[in-house]
Queue: 3 jobs
Job 1
Amino acid sequence: ETGVTQSPTHLIKTRGQQVTLRCSSQSGHNTVSWYQQALGQGPQFIFQYYREEENGRGNFPPRFSGLQFPNYSSELNVNALELDDSALYLCASSLGASGRFADTQYFGPGTRLTVL
Amino acid sequence: AQSVTQPDIHITVSEGASLELRCNYSYGATPYLFWYVQSPGQGLQLLLKYFSGDTLVQGIKGFEAEFKRSQSSFNLRKPSVHWSDAAEYFCAVGAKTGANNLFFGTGTRLTVIP
């Protein structure tokens, strides 16, 4: 077990709706990253937060947004859902400060989002 | 830009046989390299990582990987596979600038037959 939890486990939404996914990092981990894993693909980096500020972003549109809270929890929000947003969403926490590339990322079990 | 190629989508091996999963990366400098394993319904578990130094890296569950700069490869090996090793395996490269995010390959699904 990595000590990283995510909720909910599964979620079904319809196109155009909004969704919030939650992650609880390991205690003491200041960095959280979110990844999207489409069926049959490897995870793709969405964005990363360090001490409650966005610290880097992958090739995802602004309707993907996030928040990180002081209690080591974080959220991924997706607005105006599209069918292609159906995927497994993974969060990963690490000790790392910005630039500490050697820090291991610990992944949660993911949230399976289905958009109909 | 970083990228990772895992040329084998699916590999089947017999229990007790040796295993090698291939990974090739593209990166402008010495990369940080990782192997993760994902079982059905589970998140990603780190098997091993390479940052620098000895090019043969030992990991958990009896896995090892060798970094070969000349071939831009980081292949994962195990001398004797167990049925519980059946899972999806992902190779990843770590970015050296900006956020310490990971770039993943598309994965190799391992099936173990008795």
Job 2
Amino acid sequence: DAKTTQPPSMDCAEGRAANLPCNHSTISGNEYVYWYRQIHSQGPQYIIHGLKNNETNEMASLIITEDRKSSTLILPHATLRDTAVYYCIVRVYGNNRLAFGKGNQVVVIP
Amino acid sequence: DTGVSQDPRHKITKRGQNVTFRCDPISEHNRLYWYRQTLGQGPEFLTYFQNEAQLEKSRLLSDRFSAERPKGSFSTLEIQRTEQGDSAMYLCASSVGDHYGYTFGSGTRLTVV
């Protein structure tokens, strides 16, 4: 699977939209972009995934660039409970190994 | 609670002892995964089951590690002759099919002293 690059950490203001970037310049055509997050002392939580179209669910929106080399996870109204490590993962269906990396420590500030 | 359950939540053991962890996945999920996470790192894949068959194993899963899923429901992960380097969070996850996200449990934190 292609590797991803995320900032190691970022702060976001409570109540504002949080835009979390991810680069995956070597992504191939059959690889999906997945986002998970991990709140302290808990297991990772699935957020969203997509192939090339933008996706939205009750938790977040995923914006994938047209060339698919980068994506942005958007938390529309960040709350203090969104403070977590966010992982951007690229995966092809059939590969059962999620490659998590170190993720992006996001801190929501009041 | 219909999530993934792991037991125990915490385990402290002396070096050289054997330990066993249990994972109860979501009942309709046929796929089960074990991951290991050390401090400051993301989770690393250990092994994968589809129903009762263990289909993939990482090279991280040395011969001291064994995992089973005897009836395609719960799974156990055993570590024999524990070493201090085995200290980590052991995470279990389950999923239905290949096209969905995984549901993780809260993990078992192992400390080897």
Job 3
Amino acid sequence: ETGVTQTPRHLVMGMTNKKSLKCEQHLGHNAMYWYKQSAKKPLELMFVYSLEERVENNSVPSRFSPECPNSSHLFLHLHTLQPEDSALYLCASSQATGYGYTFGSGTRLTVV
Amino acid sequence: ELKVEQNPLFLSMQEGKNYTIYCNYSTTSDRLYWYRQDPGKSLESLFVLLSNGAVKQEGRLMASLDTKARLSTLHITAAVHDLSATYFCAPATSGTYKYIFGTGTRLKVLA
């Protein structure tokens, strides 16, 4: 399988739940990213991993916790989220930081 | 801080017409990307522009870059309904994570 795969595609969770989003890339890319896309807001960069090391954390609340166990996999662990965290969460990868992205299909998250 | 502005934010146009989307950014970058997003879908890469004066064309879309003016344009020629989508520009600098997406331009082509 090629490209960037995100699971699940849709997720509904309560504010007290703990869930994880998964992203997998088979492109041999060295950088992976999490973005948040909300209605009426620009794409917001959340986390950047380069060669499995986190290199950027854009002041994201601690209820979002990323994990990059290897260069092909990226997780976003979620706990005690708020309704305003409902959004489309996009994973992307690139050959290196600053290069063109390949995006996954996204996870549509709804916090109830 | 890198800021990216696109205009217009919304564009409704008739099939067969031409129009241009503008992307202005605030700091120097050595490349610029254009992406397309269909409703409910993810982003798809369209173009990468790597130098001042670069021009890329794909079908009815043509993108150009003026690094001195910090301006990129996406020109639509003889629009068709299939071009309806949101278009994002993203200036970037290789080797860094200074990669900011513009606000997006939502294009609707009317039959």
